[in-house]
Amino acid sequence: MTLAELEIAQAESLKEIAAAADAAAVESLRVKYVGRNGSIPALIKAMKDVPREERPAFGKAVQAWRAAVEAALAEKGGGTAAGEQAVDADLTLPGRWWNLGVKHPLTRVIEESAAIFGRLGFTVADGPELETPFNNFTALNTPPHHPSQDRSDTFWFGDDCLLRTQTSPVQIRTMLANKPPIRVICPGRTYRRDTTDATHSANFHQIEGLYVDTMDKPVSLADLKSVLAYFAREMMGDGVTVRFRPHFFPFTEPSVEVDFTCHVCKGRGCNVCKQSGWIEVAGAGMVDPRVFRHVGYDPESVSGYAFGFGVERIAMIKYGIPDIRWLYENDVRFLSQLG
Ligand code: PHE
After folding, report:
1. What average pLDDT score do residues 107-133 get?
2. What pLDDT does residue 264 have?
3. CATH number of this structure's domain 105-336
4. Closest ligand 1 atom number to CA of residue 190
5. Pair type for strands 130-131 and 182-191
6. Residue 230: in which H helix or E strand, if any?
7. Which 3 state secondary structure label does DSSP give 244?
8. Euclidean distance between CA atoms 159 and 282, whole angstroms
9. Which of these, 260, 269, 259, lies nearest to 237 by C-alpha position?
10. Residue 169: CB within 6 Å of ligand 1?
11. H or E element: which one contains 175?
12. Residues 160, 162, 166, 168: is their CA dihedral positive or negative?
């Protein structure tokens, strides 16, 4: 090939590249001119046959051709991986689907309860899961011979430390640290030596409530009932109300167990409430004077109520969960249904 022929070949190749209609055409021109067996590498291989005195000029011309072809290919987006992708992307493919997470039902019940009681002026108090027997039992007027203090009912660590069996010790901590008026709820984890079955777990959650005020605003059982009735409606829906049944707790007097009307049958009787129309959800009562004395309050100048309900209980009846263990297995197929 003479220098003149080379010039013509170069012009021809650039025209072809400029006219290439798609990525495949650009690629085949790349192979044709600069590919391993393309015409430009072939010319370089054939340099040895060019007369010695013409070689420098010829070599320069071949290199210039190669540079021109590569620049033309690059401009067409040919030869580079990015260019190939841009041309091949299928913009009609559906996008990727990301699942949004949901809050755990126990977290939702706790947060909703805090919001409901928050509207009534209650703030959230907190306490440790490892407690002293004083806070968990003694100050709550629960004597050493009471069955709940038994080694078989409570997780003890020596004689002076235990896993709290209820959230009620947070009442004691709150009263020891504050003067009335007190209006708190205390959500948290609690522990009992229960064997775990469909409705019991050795580790569960409670929400404690405590309201104490001075005698210029005496607190009554009727106040307690109205607050729990409001909570029942807000949490379970319109038409749900409460009833009190006489009961005994060492730290309240009088004491009651609290039932909600069944939110499914609205009290008519169904499988969820075992045909009774009522579902037990909480313990409650007026704070016992002995408890006030233990925290240094004068029982003659303060009065108050306390309540405590099971978070699992509320979650199970609210969402229709038949087995408490589902709440701890964290199976996403179950949890995602409650979003
Ligand atoms: N602590 C009690 C329980 O775990 C519930 C309760 C709380 C009862 C506050 C009365 C007042 O059963």
Report:
1. 97
2. 84
3. 3.30.930.10
4. 4
5. unpaired
6. helix 221-236
7. strand
8. 29
9. 260
10. no
11. helix 169-177
12. positive
The ligand 1 atom at the shortest distance from the C-alpha of residue 166 is 4
Query: Any idea which residue has 């029982």 for tokens?
Result: 299
How does pLDDT run across 263-289, given as a tens digit for each residue? 888 889 988 888 999 999 999 999 999
CA 254-259-264 angle, to 5 degrees, is 170
**Token representation of residue 16:** 């072809």
- For a substitution probing ligand 1, which of 122, 140, 168, 207 has the most ligand atoms within 8 Å of its CB? 168
DSSP secondary structure string, 259-291? EEEPTTTTTS--TTTTTSSEEEEEEEEEEPHHH
Rounded CA separation 195/46 (Å): 90
Strands 203-214 and 182-191: antiparallel
Q: Which of 3, 114, 121, 133 is nearest to 55 (CA)?
A: 3
pTM over 0.70: yes
Q: For the chain, which residues make up each domain, given as ranges? A: 3-88, 105-336
**Helix or strand (DSSP H, E) at 203:** strand 203-214
CB contact burial 76-105 (16+ within 10 A = b; e otherwise): bebbeeebeeeeeeeeeeeeeeeeeeeeeb
Paired tokens of 97: 């689907």
Atom of ligand 1 nearest to the CA of 309: 5
Cα separation, 306 vs 302, whole angstroms: 13
